[in-house]
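Figure 6 in text form: structure in, sequence out.
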């Protein structure tokens, strides 16, 4: 626990940015009956009945010292998907950094093995050398500032 708290207490360092990463599945829900729009003095009304629109996985990246966040939507949240997010962090978001201090929970995909599963060994090694994994203690993933657990979102079929 102290490792994570010590990271949060340090000032922003452009050469070693602090990044919190988490993912969560989201259930997409749509309206069966069109909502009643708001009127002056009355909020919009939604019926309790909904239609299921599938699920998506959201990878949420947050830099607490910079007040910056980014959400990546994916159909899955496996090793291949997290590896793509990590490569994006290293190559596009923090390409000038010496290393990225990454706060993650203990999910099995939150490790360098995901990179070796997704990429050739040389590429995985290159990315691994730029990432410093800091794991929240077991049963304390709430220490990760990006920890997110909502499970349902309404969606519009017009999208």
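Output sequence:
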């Amino acid at each position: 626990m102290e490792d994570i708290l010590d990271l949060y207490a340090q000032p922003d360092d452009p050469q070693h940015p602090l990044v919190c990463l988490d993912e969560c599945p989201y259930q997409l829900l749509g309206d069966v009956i069109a909502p009643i729009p708001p009127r002056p003095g009355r909020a919009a009304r939604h019926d309790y009945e909904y239609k299921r629109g599938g699920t998506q996985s959201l990878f949420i990246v947050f830099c607490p010292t910079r007040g910056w966040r980014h959400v990546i939507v994916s159909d899955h949240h496996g090793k291949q998907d997290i590896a793509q997010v990590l490569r994006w962090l290293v190559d596009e978001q923090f390409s000038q950094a010496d290393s990225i201090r990454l706060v993650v929970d203990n999910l099995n995909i939150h490790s360098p093995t995901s990179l070796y599963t997704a990429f050739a060994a040389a590429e995985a090694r290159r990315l691994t050398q730029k990432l410093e994994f800091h794991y929240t203690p077991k049963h304390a993933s709430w220490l990760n500032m990006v920890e997110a657990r909502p499970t349902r979102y309404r969606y519009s079929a017009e999208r």
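Caption detail: The chain has a mean pLDDT of 86.
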